[in-house]
Specification:
This protein is α+β, with helices and mostly antiparallel strands and 427 residues long. It has helices at 25-36, 87-94, 127-137, 142-156, 171-184, 201-216, 228-234, 252-262, and strands at residues 4-16, 60-72, 76-80, 102-107, 111-114, 189-192, 220-224, 237-242, 245-251, 279-280, 285-293, 299-300, 302-303, 309-317, 321-331, 337-342, 351-353, 356-364, 367-368, 371-381, 384-389, 393-397, 417-418.
Length: 427
């Protein structure tokens, strides 16, 4: 059809599991001769075993196999899956960085790729020179690149360093400029890998907005990310990869649901699966949902400094349950418990649940210091865990307040909780 811009047919990529050479041709030949006779490698390192049970019997591994799909003009296609599923390999093939072992693909139009930090730019050239180099590679004239130059620099925010060699850029600066170049030089196809995770949240949101505008202009976007909410908001269609093969191709919400069903080590949009692996307890009742609510009564995963917030959770009881105590526990990324909220006010204060679903809202009085945190929920009966799902919700507290001047930043980092204390002078 006329609007078909990418066609992939039976694509496969195979790699050989080889050993690094010894650096000496006679040693390499000796190693080969020992292998032919079924003897142990004479150049094994101390403590290393000549054992392939962990790799399997084959000298080869398929990173991709039997991959077929079409992409139409203006489509934003999400590609999701676990680490090692073959996502980056697929993008490298489509970007012509590596060639497929089997199958073929056809692409109509110019491709701009942002795959991993360090690719696409010459490290010894300045930011300015790399902009013109990438434009020339895409087939643009010098005048066309000049017309986009100011817009690229403004979007990237690296104007001060535009004449500095990019090898001196931080990873964040590099990604800012690389994305700005890829998005603004108007390729027909924009390919973005997980590399955007290097940038801060503000820049990530800026990039997502730009990708939406790119697709609206009729250009095609292929987006790989582990950030499922971002994939859902940006992509109407997604492909789920599993062990190098296409497991699902269709609506993004359905693709995410299928991804979540593969194993239950992750929680999406606050929904806690009943067979979520990171939970323990006797199971008379189960937490099914948890959400963070900000001061504007919006569901969120980010809070401003000193912003009041609530935790909303749903729990489902299979039968009537008495003598329950609920806990909400807050942890930092290292697993240090920084704050606890408990439902009981005294030793005789218990919750009771009838059979069915119940929703609780907890207003947390304390303010957490800027940083990253996660929540674990707990339901206990007579000191025994009925349900304890860990790491249910991750969130961030910014170092700027919602109502403060946007240039103000809270720089102190004493402790984890900013106390909501009452101060008064008595003499």
């Amino acid at each position: 059809m006329n609007d078909l811009i990418i066609k992939v047919e039976n694509l496969g990529k195979q790699y050989r599991l080889g050993k690094v050479g010894t650096g000496n041709i006679s040693h390499d030949l000796n190693r080969w001769w020992h292998k032919v006779r079924g003897k142990e490698d004479p150049y094994l390192k101390v403590g290393e075993k000549n054992d392939r049970t962990q790799k399997g019997g084959s000298e080869y591994v398929w990173s991709l196999r039997d991959m077929s799909f079409d992409v139409r003009q203006g489509e934003v296609l999400g590609i999701i899956g676990k680490n090692g599923a073959g996502k980056s390999t697929l993008l490298k093939i489509l970007s012509r960085i590596t060639s497929p072992t089997t199958g073929s693909f056809k692409v109509r139009g110019r491709i701009a790729s942002l795959l991993e930090v360090g690719t696409g730019f010459h490290p010894d050239l300045s930011g300015r020179e790399n902009i013109f180099l990438n434009g020339a590679i895409l087939g643009m004239t010098k005048q066309e690149i000049i017309s986009k130059f100011d817009e690229i620099v403004d979007f990237s925010g690296v104007e001060k360093y535009i004449d500095t060699p990019v090898k001196r850029y931080s990873s964040g600066m590099y990604v800012r400029l690389a994305f700005a170049v890829a998005a603004h030089l108007e390729p027909e196809i924009l390919i973005i890998d997980e590399v955007l995770s290097v940038g801060d949240q503000e820049f990530q949101n800026k990039c997502l907005g730009k990708m939406k505008s790119v697709s609206t202009a009729g250009r095609t976007v292929l987006f790989v990310s582990h950030n499922l909410p971002a994939v859902k908001s940006l992509c109407t269609r997604s492909i789920l990869l599993d062990k190098g093969e296409k497991r699902f191709d269709g609506d993004t919400s359905d693709a995410i649901a299928e991804y979540m069903s593969m194993d239950h080590e992750e929680i999406y949009d606050g929904i806690i699966p009943r067979n979520y692996k990171q939970r323990m307890g006797t199971g008379e009742c189960r937490f099914t949902m948890v959400r963070l609510i900000n001061s504007l009564s919006e569901k969120c995963t980010q809070l401003y400094f000193r912003e009041s917030f609530r935790v909303l959770f749903t729990i489902e009881a299979d039968k009537d349950v008495k003598n329950l105590v609920f806990w909400i526990r807050f942890f930092d990324p290292e697993g240090t418990e920084v704050l606890v909220s408990e439902s009981s006010k005294n030793v005789f204060d218990f919750e009771e649940l009838s059979t069915g679903t119940h929703t609780y809202e907890v207003e947390v009085g304390e303010h957490l210091m800027p940083g990253d945190y996660y929540i674990s929920l707990g339901a206990y009966m007579n000191g025994m865990a009925v349900d304890y799902p860990e790491k249910c919700l991750y969130f961030k507290v910014f170092n700027t307040a919602r109502s403060s001047d946007e240039h103000y930043r809270w720089q102190k980092s004493y402790g984890y909780v900013f106390s909501n204390s009452n101060w008064k002078k008595i003499n």
